[in-house]
């Protein structure tokens, strides 16, 4: 047998092993269009309403996908966003026009979550993503170059490396820009021509890429974090801004936390019991009181820590507690399991926040009926 044949046989053998049905890969986190593919398919089957060009679903079906509900065929669509229906309707309606959508709010108000699910329902593709950071360059938004081909053959379409935004323009899909205000101001303004003219110039080739119908941009931003770069007036005018608020009631926030924790628990295959409603309610109550600076009954004013204490952080605290309960406890979430995550979420500044937290423990948690276990566990960690 020749050396070439030996190599070919070895490669074929490896391929068979890798393609074996017994060898499966489990993704840590599926994209929305993969995770909820059945819901999208069921909605598409019964969706007889008008669909804008290149939309996978009608605006009504997109809204139903996000907010959940029972379809005419009896299929139950899960709620991805729990909140004011009008907010989602405005967001979806914006994307049917020629204006881009800017989702703004404090950290943890589900901006990225809503952005991903809107893209999945409208385009069937939530992967056309630009993650904004202080180091995001103009090339990440417009296009880059394959420098080997550029040096060998000079500027050409083959040497051009399209950005997710350029691919969205060509395919008539939704492009996502996360944390827009973290991108330097001069780079942000790269979007102005794209959003106003629906055209991306390529001066090196004396050419341009024009957007196909269905193209739009969903950007997210918050103004609470450090390192924020304000949007220019010219760029703001290209967006329709929708503010995503914090949950209005304890019940709404508890429901959000419970749903997300159960979903994450299944995805991570944590061998723990779903958290008891009362334990989730206690964590949410702590977060809401410290956020607002007043106790739930309105009788006691308290100091607020430096952090935002968002719903997303509450989800993280419960999820961390479930992992501790599963691997180092009896599988049932207890005060001792959530204490370390709770203290870590509150105390961001080790000096200022520690004072606020200890005062809250002594004046509120210690005196509240049924909270002695949480008080003791948090005192031990603090």
The profile of the biggest β sheet is: 5 strands, parallel
| Shape category | globular
Q: How is the CATH topology of the largest domain named?
A: Rossmann fold
Derived from helix and strand composition plus strand pairing, the structural class reads: alpha/beta
Q: Report the portion of residues in β strands.
A: 5-15%
Order of helices and strands: HHHHEEHEHEHEHEHEHHEEEHEHHHHHH
The CATH superfamily title of the largest domain? P-loop containing nucleotide triphosphate hydrolases
CATH architecture of the largest domain: 3-Layer(aba) Sandwich
User: Helicity level, as a percent range?
Assistant: 40-55%
Mean pLDDT: 89
CATH C-level category of the largest domain: Alpha Beta
**Domain count:** 2
- Report the total helices: 18
Q: Biggest sheet: strands side by side, in what order? A: 4-7-10-3-11
Low-pLDDT residue spans: 1-21
Write a structural description.
It is a single chain. The chain folds into two domains: 91-243, Rossmann fold, CATH 3.40.50.300; 250-381. It is built from 18 helices and eleven strands. The chain has helices spanning 3-18, 32-35, 37-46, 59-67, 85-95, 111-123, 138-141, 147-153, 164-171, 185-188, 191-197, 233-236, 250-268, 277-292, 311-328, 335-346, 352-365, 372-381; strands at 69-70, 76-77, 100-104, 129-131, 143-145, 160-162, 174-178, 199-202, 207-210, 216-221, 239-243. It has a five-stranded parallel beta sheet with strand order 4-7-10-3-11. A hairpin with a 5-residue loop joins strand 1 (69-70) and strand 2 (76-77). It starts with a helix and ends with a helix.
């Amino acid at each position: 047998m020749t050396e070439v044949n030996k190599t070919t046989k070895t490669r074929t053998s490896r391929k068979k092993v890798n393609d074996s049905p017994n060898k499966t890969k489990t993704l840590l986190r599926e994209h929305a269009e993969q995770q909820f593919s059945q819901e999208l398919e069921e909605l598409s089957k019964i969706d007889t309403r008008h669909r804008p060009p290149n939309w996978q679903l009608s605006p009504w079906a997109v809204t139903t996908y996000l907010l959940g509900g029972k379809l005419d065929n009896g299929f139950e669509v899960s709620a991805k966003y729990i909140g004011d229906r009008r907010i989602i309707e405005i967001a979806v309606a914006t994307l049917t026009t020629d204006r881009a959508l800017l989702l703004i709010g404090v950290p943890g108000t589900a901006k990225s979550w809503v952005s991903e699910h809107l893209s999945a329902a409208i385009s069937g593709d939530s992967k056309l993503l630009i993650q904004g950071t202080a180091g995001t360059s103009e090339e990440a938004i417009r296009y880059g170059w394959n420098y080997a081909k550029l040096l060998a053959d000079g500027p050409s379409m083959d040497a051009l490396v399209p950005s997710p935004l350029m691919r969205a323009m060509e395919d008539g899909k939704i492009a996502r820009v996360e944390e827009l205000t973290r991108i330097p101001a001069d780079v942000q303004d790269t979007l102005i021509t794209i959003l106003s003219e629906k055209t991306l110039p390529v001066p090196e080739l004396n050419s341009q890429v024009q957007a196909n119908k269905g193209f739009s941009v969903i950007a997210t931003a918050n103004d609470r974090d450090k390192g924020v770069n304000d949007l220019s007036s010219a760029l703001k005018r290209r967006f329709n801004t929708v503010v995503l608020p914090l949950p209005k009631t304890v019940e709404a926030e508890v429901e959000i936390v419970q749903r997300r924790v159960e979903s994450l628990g299944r995805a991570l295959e944590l061998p723990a019991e779903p958290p008891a409603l009362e334990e989730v309610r206690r964590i949410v109550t702590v977060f809401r009181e410290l956020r607002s600076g007043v106790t739930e009954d309105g009788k006691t004013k308290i100091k607020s820590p430096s952090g935002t204490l968002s719903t997303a952080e509450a989800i993280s605290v419960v999820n961390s507690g479930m992992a501790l309960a599963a691997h180092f406890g009896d599988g049932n979430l207890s005060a001792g399991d959530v204490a370390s995550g709770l203290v870590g979420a509150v105390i961001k500044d080790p000096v200022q926040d520690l004072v606020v937290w200890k005062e809250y423990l002594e004046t509120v948690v210690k005196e509240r009926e049924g909270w002695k276990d949480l008080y003791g566990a948090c005192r031990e960690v603090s």
